[in-house]
Every structure is written in C-alpha cells, then in structure tokens.
Specification:
Blueprint: E1 7-15, E2 18-26, E3 35-36, E4 66-71, E5 74-78, H1 80-86, E6 93-101, E7 110-118, H2 123-136, E8 138-146, E9 149-158, E10 161-167, H3 191-204, H4 216-233, H5 253-264, E11 294-295
Parallel strand pairs: 1-6
Antiparallel strand pairs: 1-2, 2-7, 3-11, 4-5, 6-8, 7-10, 8-9, 9-10
Length: about 300
Amino acid sequence: MATGSRTLWKGAITFGLVHIPVGLHTAASEQGVDFDWLDKRSMDPVGYKRINKRTGKEIDKDNIVKGVEYEDGKYVIISPEEIAAVFPKTTQTIEIQRFIDANEMPFIFLERPYYVAPINKSDKVYALLRETLLATGKIGLAKVVIATKQHLAALVPSGPALVLNLLRWGDEVKTLDSLELPAAGKSSVSAAELKMAKQLVAEMSGEWNPEDFKDEFRLQVMKLVEKKAKAGEGKTVLEPEEESPRTGEVIDLTALLQRSLKGGGKSASKPAAKTPAKKTSAKTPAAKKAAPQRKAA
C-alpha cells in the first residue's frame, strides 16, 4: 500500500480568518509499468525531436509558437506574455470556499488525493478543523494552486488525517444525456431477480482490504525485471529535487474564530467561481522536453 513521506508542497489552509500551516504529501502512486524506447543496437535512449509534421523536417525551437485550435484546422496563436498574464497566481493557500455535506460529493469528481499534515506547531488548529468536519459530516471545497495550475479540491477528514483530494472542474465531467440507461427504480426488475441478486451480493460481501487486490500484470513484469536486473541489466532513475515554498505563521485560533463569526472573514457561503483558468496546452505544437520516450503498455 502506498504511503506518503516527502513534503511536496507547503502552505496553509484558510477559512474565514483561520490560518493553518500545512504540508502536502502524496497519498497515492501510479504503479503501472513504464516502457522506455531504446536503440537496440546501442541501448541508447530514444528521445523526442521537434518535427514539422507536414515536411518531416526538424525545426529550431525559436520557430515554435503555441496555438489553440478553435475550429477544425484553425488556430489562434497565444504569446508567452499572454499566457503569463492569465497564469494562476501562486498563493500557497488551500482557500476553503464552502463547506458541503460529505455525501453530496459524487465519486466521479475525485481525481488525486494528498495527505495534509500540520507544520509549524499548528497541531491544535489542525485537530480542531478535523474534529469539526467529522462532527458536522462536512467537507471543505477549496481552491489551491499546485505547480502553477489551479485546482478545485475537497478537504476531507480520513481517520487521524485530513486528505486534500483534487477534483475535476464541473465542465470536465460529462453529462449522462447521450447515454441510454434503464429507468431507475425497482420497477425495471422483478422481485425474484432482485432477491437472487441480493443473495449473491451477500455471499460475495467482505471487508475492505486493499492488500487483497494487486496489479497482476505489473507484478509479472516486475518479476521479469528483477530476473534481468540480477543479470546486470538494471537501470537507475534519479528523483527530482523537492521545492521548499514559504509557509505561514500560526495565529491565535480563538480570536480568529470569533472575528470570523462576526463577519471579519470571507463568507464561506459565497459560491466559488465556476470558470477555471483556461488551459494552454490543448493541441499545442510546443517543443517537448528531451527525455526517453514512453510507450503505453
């Protein structure tokens, strides 16, 4: 089971005038198998080239611009200055916009989880927020900027921890309008069918244990990798250096709660903006970083 350790981001949870310094730790890891492209004659990595798709010729990076397709075959060119002007500003805050009932969040919006841990002696304020969410059955909807990208996120209590789960924006989730689905309700199935289905579900029911479920393909491939590694064919991958963003200071909790309740902070009931920062990478011919090219399994 994946565990988080390195601090990936440092900042603070804010709501009203409350400020809780925290750090984010990865709560999940992608365990698929990566296949790098190699030159079989020399075992050299095979990287990307900047190729003009029409002429097939390699071009210099100075001749590459970023364009967004707005109609079939028609593009608008966006300059680096225009992109920089609309980039989300890094605030180092998990700014809670609203509290909602936990059961109102559809699973389809959940995208990537991070463990949230207190830093700078903020344990008491952290614990108060966690216990308040548990007692009220609420979760916090927040905005956060991570690596220059703005995200909508849900702050959720999970055991002794708070988990920040990045969410898909509302316009990224497709509707059900184009699907032909059976009508909801018991009328679409017979009582006998429902009874037998319930019996089968009861027989197959058990407790949740993540260790019971493995990626069999990955396990088999990694056994082969281990065998080949012992024969001297192992490769080494260096981890990138972690960044050390600034953190906030702990402020007296009781005073801030009192001032927030008196209207001194931002309203938690104000609807969050629905329009995210516009993506700039859609169908762009921009240069790709020179690195070993990966193929899907």
